[in-house]
C-alpha cells in the first residue's frame, strides 16, 4: 500500500497558492514540497501579447532586477510591443497630416471665395 503524505502547511484546500509535489527523501519517506506560483510574462497594454525582452517573474521579483532588464530601449519599451508602437507613431503622423491638409483646403477655399 502507498505511503500516506501529510500536508506541511495549515491550509487544507487545493488552491493555486498551495500547489505541491510529492518528493522522496534520502531516508525513503514521501513528503510534500510546496511549489511557488508560476510567473506570467508581462503583456502589451494594447494587443495583449507577451512582451519579448522582458523576463517573466512574480511581481515582487521585478524589484530585485535592474531597470535595464525590465524595459526595452524603445519608446513605450516594457509597456507596449513594437508593432503597437509602430501603429501609434503612424496614426499620430497621419492625424497631423490630415490636420495640415484640412488647413490647406480651408485656405484655398478662402482664397477662391474672394476672387
Runs in which pLDDT lies below 50 for 5 or more consecutive residues are: none
Helix content: 25-40%
Question: What would you report as the Rg, rounded to the nearest angstrom?
Answer: 28 Å
Strand order of the largest sheet: 1-2
SSE sequence, one letter per element:
EEHH
**Dominant shape:** rod-shaped
Sheet with the most strands? 2 strands, antiparallel
Q: Tell me the distance between the termini.
A: 104 Å
Mean pLDDT: 93
Give the count of helical stretches: 2
Range of strand content:
5-15%
Please give the number of β-strands. Answer: 2
Tell me the structural class. alpha+beta
Explain the overall architecture.
The protein is an alpha+beta fold. It has two helices and two strands; from the N terminus they run ββαα. A two-stranded antiparallel sheet has the order 1-2. It is rod-shaped, with a radius of gyration of 28 Å.
Amino acid at each position: 500500500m502507498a505511503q500516506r503524505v501529510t500536508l506541511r502547511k495549515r491550509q487544507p484546500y487545493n488552491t493555486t497558492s498551495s500547489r505541491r509535489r510529492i518528493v522522496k527523501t534520502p531516508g525513503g519517506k514521501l513528503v510534500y514540497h510546496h511549489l511557488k506560483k508560476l510567473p506570467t510574462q508581462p503583456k502589451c497594454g494594447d494587443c495583449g501579447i507577451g512582451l519579448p525582452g522582458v523576463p517573466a517573474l512574480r511581481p515582487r521579483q521585478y524589484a530585485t532586477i535592474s531597470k535595464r532588464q525590465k524595459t526595452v530601449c524603445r519608446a513605450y519599451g516594457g509597456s507596449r510591443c513594437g508593432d503597437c508602437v509602430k501603429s501609434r507613431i503612424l496614426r499620430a503622423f497621419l492625424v497631423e497630416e490630415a490636420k495640415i491638409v484640412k488647413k490647406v483646403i480651408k485656405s484655398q477655399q478662402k482664397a477662391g471665395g474672394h476672387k
